[in-house]
């Protein structure tokens, strides 16, 4: 499972709000909802987040192995 919990901490640390992502960087509310619900996002979106936040992928997402 992929968790985007690190994203919210990174955003807070960098002073970027969801509102700023929508207004300043043209993020859709749907994309933000997908992130909040830990749903799939594209690698292009992941790239955009890393560029905007000047961070690494690990600062945006966390891989949690499924219990199988």
> Strand content of the residues, in percent?
5-15%
Number of helices: 4
State the end-to-end CA separation: 12 Å
Order of helices and strands: EHHHHE
Task: Trace the largest sheet across and list its strands.
Answer: 1-2
Radius of gyration: 12 Å
Secondary-structure-based class equals mainly alpha
Work out the count of structural domains.
1
Q: Categorize the overall geometry.
A: globular
Question: CATH topology, anyone?
Answer: 434 Repressor (Amino-terminal Domain)
CATH superfamily: lambda repressor-like DNA-binding domains
CATH architectural arrangement: Orthogonal Bundle
Summed over residues and divided by their number, the pLDDT gives a mean of: 95
Helix content: 40-55%
The CATH first-level class comes to Mainly Alpha
Query: Count the strands?
Result: 2
Ranges with pLDDT <50 over ≥5 residues? none
Biggest sheet record: 2 strands, antiparallel
């Amino acid at each position: 499972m992929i968790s985007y919990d690190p994203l919210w901490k990174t955003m807070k640390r960098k002073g970027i709000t969801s509102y700023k992502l929508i207004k300043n960087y043209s993020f859709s509310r749907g994309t933000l909802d997908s992130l909040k619900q830990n749903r799939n996002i594209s690698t292009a979106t992941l790239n955009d987040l890393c560029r905007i936040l000047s961070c690494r992928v690990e600062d945006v997402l966390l891989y949690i192995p499924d219990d199988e």
